[in-house]
């Protein structure tokens, strides 16, 4: 999965993963992390997710990371706010109010972007990567924000039913990726097929959605 793949998807408007009303599992499970209202939340691979606005409405500061400048432009335009722009190395960094989005590759993200981060919200980030990059992504989170708990929304479907993304990522894989460094709790599992018309149309016949809380073993 190269950066160009995602840049082109945004250019062609092929963003079936985007949820027009945000993700309902976030408000249901966010309190489990116990994040202080003024704390900073990292949203990796944020797209133009309205979940960032929801987190900001809970009085959090939000740091998003997203490859596509179109996604970042859309987010701020749809929020009806003007974002200030600066450049940090290969990143265009755009800020409006409590929300800052670092536009570039998460694997190049500098430590200064995440210095205040207290927790991570991952919806459709881990599952956007194939297996090899999932390993790299897990290590990147562990390195960048070693003491931050993670609310992770993952999904799984029958093996080989579609070519990802999203890549089926069941509990066993979440455990392989994160189990050495985090205690893994399951907050909820549910049948997600009804809420995923995009995946139904692509041929997925069974879809499990799961919400995990990952708590670092050493803080
Ligand atoms: C499946 S979408 C999920 C977007 C968002 N989390 C949501 O819930 O709508 C994955 C997003 O990650 C972005 N992306 C993919 N690889 C990336 C990378 N290496 N660094 C930063 N963003 C990336 C893509 O452009 C895309 O917007």
Major beta sheet, specifics? 9 strands, mixed
What is the number of domains?
1
Distance between the termini: 32 Å
Structural class: alpha/beta
What would the CATH topology be?
Answer: Rossmann fold
What would CATH call the class? Alpha Beta
- List segments where confidence is low: pLDDT < 50 over at least 5 consecutive residues: none
Strand content: 25-35%
Q: Give me the side-by-side strand order of the main sheet.
A: 3-4-5-2-1-6-7-9-8
How does this structure look, described?
The protein has 219 residues and is an alpha/beta fold. The protein has a single domain (3-13, 24-29, 36-216), classed as Vaccinia Virus protein VP39 (Rossmann fold, 3-Layer(aba) Sandwich). The chain is built from 7 helices and 9 strands. It has helices spanning 3-12, 25-29, 51-57, 69-79, 131-144, 171-178, 197-202, and strands spanning 40-43, 61-66, 84-88, 91-96, 99-103, 117-123, 150-156, 182-191, 208-216. Strands 3-4-5-2-1-6-7-9-8 form a 9-stranded mixed sheet, with helices on both faces. The longest helix has 14 residues, at 131-144. The chain is globular and about 45 Å long. S-adenosylmethionine binds next to strand 2.
Strand and helix layout:
Layout: H1 3-12, H2 25-29, E1 40-43, H3 51-57, E2 61-66, H4 69-79, E3 84-88, E4 91-96, E5 99-103, E6 117-123, H5 131-144, E7 150-156, H6 171-178, E8 182-191, H7 197-202, E9 208-216
Parallel strand pairs: 1-2, 1-6, 2-5, 6-7
Antiparallel strand pairs: 3-4, 4-5, 7-9, 8-9
